[in-house]
Amino acid sequence: MKYVFSFDEWKGKKPKDLAHQLGGKGAGLAEMTRIGLPVPAGFTITTLACDYYYKHGRKLPKELKGQVHAALGKLEKKTGKKLGDPHDPLLVSVRSGSARSMPGMMETILNVGLNDQAVEGLAKKTGNARFAYDAYRRFVQMYSAVVIGLPKEELEEKLRAMKTRLKTKDDTQVPAEAWRDLVKEYKAHFHKKTGMHFPDDPEGQLWGAIEAVFRSWMAEKAVTYRRVEKITGLLGTAVSVVQMVFGNKGENSGTGVCFTRDPSTGGKEFYGDYLVNAQGEDVVAGIRTPMHLDEMHKLMPKVYAQLEGVRRTLEEHYRDMQDLEFTVEDGRLYMLQTRTGKRTPAAAFKIAVDMAKEGLITKEEALGRIKAEDIERLFYPVIRSDVNRAELGSRQLAIGISAVPGAAVGRVVFTAEEAEEWAGRGEKVILVRRETSPEDVGGMFVAQGILTATGGKTSHAAVVARGWGKCCVVGCEQLDISYEEKLMQSNGRVVRQGDWITLDGNDGAVFEGQVQLVMPELPETYYTLLKWADGIRRLGVRTNADTPQDSRKAIQMGAEGIGLCRTEHMFFKDFEQPEKSADRQLAIQEMIVAQDREARLKALARLLPFQRRDFIGIFEAMNGFPVTIRLIDPPLHEFVPHDPERQKDLAEKIGVSVETVARRVEQLHEANPMLGHRGCRLCITYPEILEMQVRAIIEAAIECKKRKIKVLPEIMIPLTLDRKEMEILGGATRRVADEIIKKSGVKLEYAVGTMIELPRAALLADQIAEVAEFFSYGTNDLTQTCMGLSRDDAGRFLPDYVDPNKAGVFPADPFQTIDEAGVGQLVRIGIEKGRKTRPKLKVGICGEHGGDATSVRFCHQVGMDYVSCSPFRVPIARLAAAQAVIEEKAAKKKAKGNKR
Ligand code: ADP
Ligand code: MG
Ligand code: MG
To answer: Which of 234, 449, 543, 725 has the fewest CB atoms within 10 Å, measured from its CB?
Structure first.
């Protein structure tokens, strides 16, 4: 097995598939080398070696030694330097990198190959002893911490003490002798702690570093990151060994990180930070505050121009925004990394649309670049514009750098563990740190927002938070944080753990207390992109809405009708006049407690006007779009009080004895309500409920028609399991409706259909379609009944079934993403059989799944007519429906190509 590849081995080969084996970093370095960009020489050990390492009890494959040795020989030849040479040593970095970017989660060791002799050679050869010893102390510190595992703080403490002695804060002010002494101190410390001498054999150092990188694949922070980011299916990390280039050689050297476009706004500006006389990790760690690229432009125009050229080349090559690392050594530019840059959701839209307009990518590709989460996160709140700014100003604690826009309100915690603990209790928290380190990802993930005292837009906190679209303010230097006392001070104020603060990620401001937030204004490019999606998709997108308000919201989000209007919610609440909600509740409760049909009809007659008014409101809001209204579904016991106090209250109000009420409630009790007296079964027992509801729907529709509002009511019978059942209820529905229509003299079309939410209904769909004009898949119940899983009880074990590190039985939570293998089969069968009977049968979905991108794809594939989801998920469904078409096209094209 070939495990090692030099960067320059890839002439004429396609890049994409490389990342899986070389890791993103290795592939990027090979690719930049291939297209002629200035990259230091080096080689990559593939992820297959890491895979082997873990599959064989942490042993490296036998052939690796020889292969690395050979690649190193080639590297030495190419650079004209030798590892450990006492006169002119080759130094290398040993870098991690998997196929999916995991910023800062794994280890990298710089300046490998230094010992007491080599450092002297390096000093003489470069005529720069300060630099040589700076590199040496960095190496010893990094190696001790990363490879051997000595606590970083102990080493950093020594560095701080030394700087205090020298009365300087700045690394660049430290002379060679002081660095040399520090190395001695480090080594003594190393000896004391480990009983060993610091390894000074360069090839031994190299192997130590390589293994440390492999180990870092399974470090807790890396495992946590993969868990929260749901990264699976990777082989492991690759290891790239790269000739060191030095940004710490003096004023004409430095190191930087940049994005080819602004990662927060997506604007086509070159965005980045540059630190003079520094080595790589200094920028990211936020040790010194870097300068902006424009300043670097002034400082070294030639190098800047070259960098600008690289920016263009790489964007054109990768056809996406790139995140770059570079180093300048004595005025020469070296590229050290390129990867697809993480961006805020707003930037994702802008970059996709801009690149399509620039002709860099197609519209289809632009659509493919937006993820469901990007849309979700666009709707993250911002501070209300009508908040009193002067008052707010008086509560300002500090102002930092805005790393990710949006706003967040939460209670302050100072450690990631506490963040997780508090959030686990349902608290909203803001994680405040001096700087976040990769160990903090778990806590960062659960926090509403993140605030750090140091670091810039390219710091780890910023990069990680950006990937999640999570509000993040960094570099808030006024903050004086005390972890011991669990408090921070700023602007003369003290904020303690548990106090509320508000972050404004748009301008980096931090306020005391809770500030009111609202939904943000959507960027122009959002509308453009979704319009493109609408032009491509075949599936209709409707919404689940029970109120006129929700309906209007959904229309704004692009819904083309209502796929599920649940009538029972109207029994609980009057959305137009909330103070009148009690009237409705009383009427339905009276209906349920009623002893005979007579009394029931009386109570229902009181409900009728409420329902009618609600439907009018919804028809108005939908203005000509179809509205599917589901008749009563939940079991009746859900509507009556269960505690004696409220039962007494009810008895008094409707004028019956408490015993009557209590007895009725007792009667309604069911051992398994989910499979009990609910859905259309209620209307088989109490046809008068159906009659009242149909009357309300049809009368509302007629009134709207009279007012010239277009209406398309679709009456939906829930939980059907048999043709005969549907025939009885559908028949009753039509009788009531036709009679009212006839009397009114208005022409009104309507449809009567059913939900398919029981396996039996799917299996008998051909028969049911004889009497049902449309199907709507209720995949929540269908999932429960097909899998025998109760959604309300599955929380105890389902996570284990989904977690790939536990049982991993299902690829995803079947209540979130449709279980294609099982439930999906019932869906397919139902559609096929239904359309055999009624070729034009309209089919939709109205379960939770209608707003899940993966499930929407499935709905497209099985030939549904529309999906229906909650108003906020409508844009996600629109996008996913378009992506489904694009994928289908691509698959067809590929199949055709294969045939040929
Ligand atoms: P990470 O994935 O954490 O960014 P990297 O492997 O990219 O880790 O390295 C950490 C830092 O060291 C980066 O800033 C990088 O640019 C720098 N670096 C890595 N290799 C070299 C090298 N050969 N010469 C100079 N700097 C390097
Ligand atoms: Mg890097
Ligand atoms: Mg249902």
So the answer is: 234
Any ligand 1 atom below 6 A from CB of 40: yes
- Ligand 1 mean position, distance from CA 244 (Å): 9
Residue 288 scores a pLDDT above 80 = no
Contact yes or no for 612/653 (Cβ under 8 A): no
Token pair in block for residue 586:
């009383």
Pocket of ligand 1 contains residue 93 by CB under 6 Å: yes
Among protein residues, the one with the nearest Cα to ligand 1's atom 12 is 280
**Is 23 near ligand 1, meaning CB less than 6 Å away?**
no
DSSP bridge partners of 416: none
Give the Cα separation of 85 and 564 in Å (integer). Answer: 75
Q: What pLDDT score does 728 carry?
A: 98
pLDDT in tens, 143-158: 999 999 999 889 999 9
- Read off the pLDDT of residues 582-623 as tens digits, 9 standing for 90 and up: 888 888 999 999 988 999 999 999 999 999 999 999 999 999
Residue 840's φ and ψ, nearest 5 degrees, are -95, 15
Amino acid at 717: I
Task: Quote the crossing angle between the two packed helices 129-142 and 152-166, to the nearest 10°.
Answer: 150
Q: Helices 202-216 and 64-79 meet at what angle, rounded to 10? A: 120
Distance 840 CA to ligand 3 centre (A): 24
Measured CA distances, 690 to 193, 685, 717, 738 (Å) = 80, 10, 10, 14
Phi, psi at 692, each rounded to 5°: -60, -45
In this prediction, residue 102 carries a pLDDT of 86
The pLDDT confidence band at residue 792, using thresholds 50, 70 and 90, is confident
Residue (of 741, 715, 703) closest to 620 by Cα position: 703
pLDDT at site 900: 64
Among 93, 216, 246, 329, say which to mutate for ligand 1: greatest number of ligand atoms within 8 Å of CB: 93
Q: What is the pLDDT of residues 394-422, one digit of tens each?
A: 899 999 988 888 899 999 999 999 999 99
Q: What is the CA radius of gyration of the chain?
A: 33
pTM for this one? Answer: 0.83
Looking at residue 289, what is its pLDDT? 77
Q: How far is the CA of 772 from the centre of ligand 3 (A)?
A: 17
More confident residue, 864 or 872: 864
Which atom of ligand 1 approaches the CA of 245 most closely? 24
Q: Establish whether residue 327 lines the binding site of ligand 1, counting it when its CB lies within 6 angstroms of any ligand atom.
A: yes
Expressed in angstroms, the distance from the first to the final Cα of the chain is: 33
Task: Identify the H or E element spanning 664.
Answer: helix 658-668
State the DSSP code for 144. I
With residue 31 as reference, give the H or E element that holds it.
helix 18-34
Tokens of 662: 């209590």
Ligand 1 contact, 245 CB (< 6 A): yes
Q: How far is it, in rounded angstroms, from Cα 385 to Cα 389? A: 9
Q: Which atom of ligand 1 is nearest to the CA of 257?
A: 14
Query: Regarding predicted confidence, which is higher, 226 or 735?
Result: 735
Distance between CA atoms of 207 and 234, rounded to whole angstroms?
A: 23
Distance CA 608, CA 614 (A): 10
Which residues neighbour ligand 3 (ion) by CB within 5 Å?
Answer: 757, 778, 781
Ligand 3 centroid to 719 CA: how many Å?
6
Per-residue confidence (pLDDT) for residue 13, from 0 to 100: 64
Ligand 1 atom having least distance to the Cα of 325: 16
- Which residue numbers are catalytic? 460, 846
Mean pLDDT over 759-777 rounds to: 98
C-alpha 783 – ligand 3 centre gap (Å): 10
